[in-house]
Amino acid sequence: MRRLTVLASLGALASAAELTQITDFGPNPTNASFYLYVPDSFKANSPLLVYPHWCHGTAQDAFGSKQWRSIADEFGFPVIYPSSPWTVDHCWDVSSYDTLHHNEGGDSLSIASMVRWTLENYPIDSDRVFVSGTSSGAMMTNVMIGAYPELFAAGSAYAGVPFGCYAGDGYAVWNADCAEGRTDKTGEQWDALVLEAFPAYTGPRPKMQVFHGSVDNVVNVTNYYNEIKLWTTVLKTGSTPSSVAENDPVSGWTKSVYGEQDLFESFLADGVDHNIPDQIGEVIRFFDLDCTGETCFSRKSLPS
Ligand SMILES: *[C@@H]1O[C@H](CO)[C@@H](O)[C@H](O)[C@H]1NC(C)=O
Ligand SMILES: *[C@@H]1O[C@H](CO)[C@@H](O)[C@H](O)[C@H]1NC(C)=O
């Protein structure tokens, strides 16, 4: 009976906090909307997660249908749920010159402003800011890690494309060449795009984790192999995995880890299409979100 009472009160606590819209959070050139979830269990010095939604999704959809709310409740960290301003299909702007360049504009600057506002207004560990998403959210994850390396410790992208692959004429344009796998570059060519996004930056590069289905018919798996070329070059891990594990974390998936410090991880899901299921435990582990104290993974752990 006593255990039941404790569980009931925890349940009440966990459901009290709500998704809150923040306005006036700094430069927001594309008028993206900023929704913030701060769980009642919020603890000072917690990490921060940014979770941009997929095309045709919203902040509310991502908040309501993904597991991050309950994970945030459990470990006490806030989650930023940005909402796309592009009403046609609610994808993210991963195409414009502005979004692909540090502090130039586009949706990436709007999301960077959300992160900066949250760090100014909550006692969060600024060395433990993470970004993850699926599909358009994964494309945006690649863009944020490439254009705002000073803000993030790591990114995790499900069914995305490499930074700069969607580059096109305008904001939030669909790039069929990229999506359908006709854009193929060397690691050095991808790396050059990332360096050019923020030429003055000399600090550590966030580590990165990517997941992709082998039969993805919306965002072709060519993009997975190009993300590998991109991030193994940026992170200087070398192109040969230090370990490869089959049926990890689930049957049919192959996990590859790169570099001495495991700075890059890739997961190929055999037979899986664009509707790739979350492996949230892998993301929590990679970001060290269940860690408290001094020894948690953070930007301070990254090679400089
Ligand atoms: C954003 O909103 C402002 C104020 O309503 C407007 O002037 C501006 O044109 C909008 N920007 C975009 C990209 O829609
Ligand atoms: C991905 O692109 C390759 C090369 O164009 C093509 O052979 C393959 O069928 C595509 N995959 C899917 C699932 O559409």
UniProtKB/TrEMBL annotation:
The keyword Transferase does not apply. One of its GO terms (biological process) is xylan catabolic process. It is found in: Secreted. The keyword Ribosomal protein does not apply. Its EC number is 3.1.1.-. Residues 1-16 form the signal peptide. Transmembrane segments: none annotated. Keywords: Carbohydrate metabolism, Hydrolase, Polysaccharide degradation, Secreted, Serine esterase, Signal. InterPro entries: AB_hydrolase_fold (IPR029058), Esterase_phb (IPR010126), Plant_Biomass_Hydrol_Est (IPR050955). GO terms for cellular component: extracellular region. NCBIfam families: esterase_phb (TIGR01840). Belongs to the carbohydrate esterase 1 (CE1) family. This is Carboxylic ester hydrolase. The lineage of its organism: Eukaryota, Fungi, Dikarya, Ascomycota, Pezizomycotina.
